[in-house]
Amino acid sequence: MYSKIPNLTIGFHGCDMTIYNQVIHDNQRLNPSENDYDWLGHGVYFWESNLKRAYEFAHEKKSRGEIKEIAVIGAVLDLGYCLDFINSDNIKLLDVGYRLLEADSLNAGIELPKNKLISGDVSLLRNLDCAVIQRIHQWNDDNDYSSYDSVRGVFFEGKEIYPNSGFREKNHIQICIRNSNCIKGYFSPLEADDHYKMP
Q: What is the distance between the alpha carbons of residues 195 and 54, in angstroms, rounded to a whole number?
């Protein structure tokens, strides 16, 4: 009943300049990610209201040689029917999805996917989480339930801000858009105009 998040949301997508030009100048759409390790399942990813984190992400990709020139695309998003993992009811669905995936794996005689630590204490390759979320979508499809338009989650990432802190330097909200019609438009982010106060 309360899965529709009201109003529009601003998201930012870090990418290579070639992708930026295709979207901003050539009026193309961003392609969905379909990696087995995507944090929120398959779809088009955005950092919610976090331009700086999108730039940092693009910089990280450049340092790994995955992109040549850093760029960020802004987007106006309507999350529609959202599988929002900030919502208590939706968090419970993760257990349901896990149990379904576990039963599937047992019946097929295969191991469950695993999340993999890459640097320190952060799971950057979330194969298990991705599979669980994709299983929730499959359950909806198999039972003719409404498909989720988007998935939203909060992540606590990076070093502690201070010793024993509950805050980390890269905390963020991530959005995964599954229904491309939820992307109402793309834009090139502006720098703030110092002649005016920020509303």
A: 25
